[in-house]
């Protein structure tokens, strides 16, 4: 029986198969020590083993975040799904983009969902990204969302909708 080796990422590339890691994570932008899947990175952040998650390539999976305090750096990549791109429930998440190139995009393709939803008392700070889709941001259930900068657009619903939380807009283009 042949065993498939697990990925062993060196500078983001698997030494066995040349796969590029979806994300890297660690204590800060300057101290990103782990590489792997986006799901592994979010799990590490939720468990408190990372305070900074940085995308290394585009993501097409729905992300539910239930705990943790961390920064999600889109890093010029596209997060595009037909559901909530980020469904943040009770966690404390900063969404940003540190890339020097094109700005990172969070894009939702589903009429019934928004790109970012904050609920269950989540605290979310958004800057330097482009958020678009049927609706950009939805605030629910005593959550606190601050939009500092970025570009926000919607094709169906209010671009930014505060249903039952706190929404602070410091800047951005809508």
Secondary-structure map:
Elements: E1 9-10, E2 13-14, E3 23-28, E4 31-36, H1 38-46, E5 52-55, E6 63-65, E7 69-73, E8 78-81, E9 86-89, E10 92-96, E11 105-108, E12 116-119, E13 123-126, E14 130-133, E15 137-139, E16 144-147, E17 151-154, E18 160-162, E19 166-169
Parallel strand pairs: 5-7, 6-9, 7-10, 8-11, 9-12, 10-13, 11-14, 12-15, 13-16, 14-17, 15-18, 16-19
Antiparallel strand pairs: 1-2, 3-4, 3-5
Give an overview of the whole structure:
It is a single chain. The chain has 174 residues and is mostly beta strands. The chain is 5% helix and 43% strand. The longest helix has 9 residues. The radius of gyration is 16 Å and the shape is globular.
At a glance:
The chain has one helix at residues 38-46, and strands at 9-10, 13-14, 23-28, 31-36, 52-55, 63-65, 69-73, 78-81, 86-89, 92-96, 105-108, 116-119, 123-126, 130-133, 137-139, 144-147, 151-154, 160-162, 166-169. With 174 residues, the chain is mainly β.
- Give the averaged pLDDT, no decimals: 94
- Strand % is 35-45%
H and E string: EEEEHEEEEEEEEEEEEEEE
* Backbone structural class: mainly beta
Count of extended strands: 19
What is the overall silhouette? globular
Strand order of the largest sheet: 4-3-5-7-10-13-16-19
How does the major sheet shape up?
8 strands, mixed
Q: Give the % helix.
A: under 10%
- Low-pLDDT parts are none
Radius of gyration: 16 Å
Distance between the termini: 57 Å
Note the total helix count: 1
What labels would you give this structure?
43% strand, mainly beta, eight-stranded mixed sheet, globular, 174 residues, five-stranded parallel sheet, 5% helix
